[in-house]
Structures are given as structure tokens and as C-alpha cells.
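For concreteness, we quote verbatim a single protein encoded this way:
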Amino acid sequence: MLAGGAWVACAWPAVADPAQAAPASVAAARIDGAPLLAFSVDSSWRMARASDPDAQRSATLELLIANRLLAGEARKRFGEAALWAGQRVGFTREVSIDDQLVSTLRSLYGKEMEHDLQQLPGAGLDSLLRPAPPLSDAELDTVFGKPGALRLDDSLGEAQLAQAGKLVLLRFAKPGGGEGSISLADVARRQNVQGRVALFARQRDFMQQQARLQVASWYVLDWSARRFGAASVADLRRVLADQSDVQALMRLHGMGDDQHAGSRLLDTLAAQVSAEQVRAYYARQRADFVRIERVRARHIRLPDEAAARTVAAALAGGADFAAMARRHSIAPDAAAGGALGWVQHDSKPAGKPGWLAHLLFTQAPGQVSAPVRTPAGPGRNAPWEIVLVEERVQGYQAADSESVRHVASRAVAREMAAAQLAALRAELLRKARIEITRAGMAGAGPA
């Protein structure tokens, strides 16, 4: 069970089988009086079991409750704009959540939806479509302006969207009766940057494709609302919105699926990490700071690619590296078999360029490198190098180095951020009034 919180078991009619599904629209829990429906819990549980067959329904319920509280607090503290400011996708928050909802419903109930589609007169979604007349150039001009007109971005203003709302791309029959339509505005509101570029380029095939996709999404939502109730579908959407906002909150704390993304909060915490904390982290995680201390190596310098390929083939066939260097290398150290001696980290071989040291430190010991053309401007003749690292000695980055300070301070900051988030979660659960109903304690929900 979740730690903290006021947990109250609510009355629910007894059932003969504890695993019997509760009605979709019944509350599995109430969080400060607001319901979390059984449909959302059971749908989320089924999704969890797809990746982990041992996932428990109770754990899913607990996660949804914690997400509801965390998401509400995140929106209150940061606002949706700040939470989603770091998103790399060009879709709005609402469109992203809608897409997640449709994808989730299709994943869980797609077979049943497909079965019902087969019962339609045309045995498929296409039978619902009612083609609309193609949009003329003049109609598109009222939305996008004249072709070739200078514009600052590919966004549509409210006046343009209002005009686009009058232009129907596709009509469709509703299975329950009546007719629906997809307008150019409907399509435009659901595009990312690439999609908006395609719209301004007047790609009519793209517009029609997007309209058809929206009809398919509409069918998924309509079928689910008729099957489980509109309130259940809306509640599942809120669960997905909670999940997205919690993921955004984690990103603000430098956690989650993209730990290398920027985080202002993490930057602030990292600046507060002391030298003592850096030293303590270095002592605990010294293995993370292993580096190549020095290598003993040889090289062969060839005048052109053809010669380099010939020598590389001979080496691949077992030829002795030092002997090939003495015979073919044009470097001054050819007589010494191309010996470079010991090359220290962050140093250059005597009289050799830095790029050669870099090549040596990226080469595995005992393996002859592929021929590498030396850096030179385009069109200039440049020699080729083949290197062999004979021995490699590892050491550790210096505890007081800048690289250690940077890595350690970020890692400590991430630990601090995780602790802050865990403390916030515990506090929210402690203060919330959480009521678990009989439906919340039941087994599987909608099949």
C-alpha cells in the first residue's frame, strides 16, 4: 500500500467472485473526493501486464493515485506551459494526450472494434466516408494566403483557423446515425511543425490522409464511449494526462527517459554541490572515472590511399607490423619500426599532431586500425596512417579535475532532485484523503 494518506474502504455490494469485473463507470478510488474510475485502473493494468505479466492491479491503482496527486501539484507549481516547454515534439499537450488515448484504446480493444467494423455494410471504416469536393486554390488562399507570400512562421492565427473551419475535407456517417465532418481547421490544429509546413505547401494528399486518420481516431473514441461510457473514456484520458505531466515533472528534476536534456532545477542544484560532496561521490564511484592513462604504439605512414590499402591487406594477412613500417612507412621513425613509444593521456607523441594521439586512445590494444587519411583541406594531397596499440595502461581521472567536478556535481544534483521528488510524493500522499472502494480492491476489469 502507499505510505501515508487517509485510507477508507467504501461500501460496495458484495460479489460472489472477488475477481469479477466492476462496472467501468464505478469509482475504484476517490482522491480528496474526486473519483478514479475502475475502467482507468483496469485499462492501465492491462497495459502494464503487456510489458510485465506479473504486474499487480493494486500496484497500478497505487501508481495512478500517486500520479493524480503529483500531476496536480506539478501543474499548480509550474503550470502546463513550463512543464511542457522542454518537449521535443512539435505537438501540443492536448494533441499528444489525445493520441495516447486513441493508441491505448486501440491497443486494448482493437479486436472488438475491428469485429464491429466488419458488421458495417461495407465491412470497414471506408464505408463510413463521404467524400467532399476538393478544396480549390481560391479557398486555400483564404487560409494560407497567396502562394509564395512571405511569412514569419507556419502557424495559423485565429482568423485563419476560423476560415479553415468552413472548409470541409471529409464527411463521414456515424454508426449510431447522423453525419460528422473533418475540416481543414481540425487537421491544422493537430499538426506539428512538419505537418504545418505540408499544409502551407498545399499538399492536398496530406490533408486528405490526415482527415482520414482523424476519422479513424473519432471511431475509436466513439466506439469506446458507447461501450464503456463517455465518463470512463474521459477519466482514462485524465490518467494519461497525469502520467504525461508526471513525466514532465521528472524531466524538470533531471530524471526520466532523457537524462541528458537540460534541466534548470538540476543546474541550480548542481551549482550548490560542495567540493566535499564531489570528493565523497568520487570515492564511492571511482570506477566511473577510469580513463586510459597511456598507450605504447606504432604507426605506418603511407603516401596515398592505394598504398595504405595494400599495406593494410598485408597486415590483415599476418604480416609483421614493425617490418611493414620499416619497409613502407614514409615517417621519420620508419627505421624504428614506426615505434611511438609510450604516449601519455592528454599529450602528443613527440613531434606528432594531436589527432594521432586521439586515434591511438580510441584504438583497442592488439588490433591494427583501418587506414585513416590525415586531416587536410579539400583537394589537398594527404598521407594515410595505420596504427597499432601494443599495450594500454588504465588509470583514473584526477579527483580535483574539472571533468570529475562536472560529472559528480550533476550526479549528486540528480540524487538531490530524486530525493526532493520522493519527499513531495510522500507528503502529498500523507495529506490526501484516499478512499479505496470495493471496485478498487476487485480483480480484473473490462476484458
